[in-house]
Amino acid sequence: MSFFSSLFVLFALAVTSIQARAVHHHHPPARPIYSPARPVHSPAPNFEADASINVAGIYAATKGSHSKVLASYPTQANRKTITSIYGDWISLPGVSAFHFMADMDIDCDGPKANCKGNRDGQSETSFGALDATKVPYFVLPERFTRENKDILKNNALGAIICNGKMFYGIYGDQDADSPEVIGEASILVGRSCFPDSTIDGNNGHPEADVAYIVFGSQVPSGVQRSSIDVNALKALGDSQVKLLQSALGL
Question: Where does the signal sequence lie (predicted)?
Fold first, then answer.
């Protein structure tokens, strides 16, 4: 091969190599795609009313329905503030309930009777030993429950409106102090209602702006000595409150 032929071959090989490198594309390494962090919200308690329920409307109706007084009690033993239990809704079409406005004292009875600040806790509740830290329940004056057995069953369903929300519970304990007072619920209910407040055995919610609606003939299934079926409670609660909402024209 002549000198010029050899030079031509070398030139051709060089061009081929350059072309090969030109068509081989190097892609940047893949990077993971990050989405912005989302705020984490505490889940709603599983005994909170369904979002479709008109809580504000029912609350207003509770405050405005006060023609049939069933009984009256102080909200605190050392206060002159008296609140009444009303029976305006006892005979509504398809649903029956009585209601009142009160504060919210904290009940710590049951297995966890020694909760912080609790000075008079008992190991049992009126119909068993409900755990106040795990069971949503409310308390009624003993005399009222004794005199109104025709409209109130043990462990009856209740709806409590507090801080703009509605929660369900059962009538699980009685107040037999002297004098008997009204407006009390388990510490679980108190902390669900007022999560930004200091709620313990000695600190409740002092304002009488909490609505208590009691469906006295309705008892959720699954109530045990120390626990309840919360899913059954919520199902019955949503059903009864929607009937009440409809009966009130809301």
Answer: 1-22
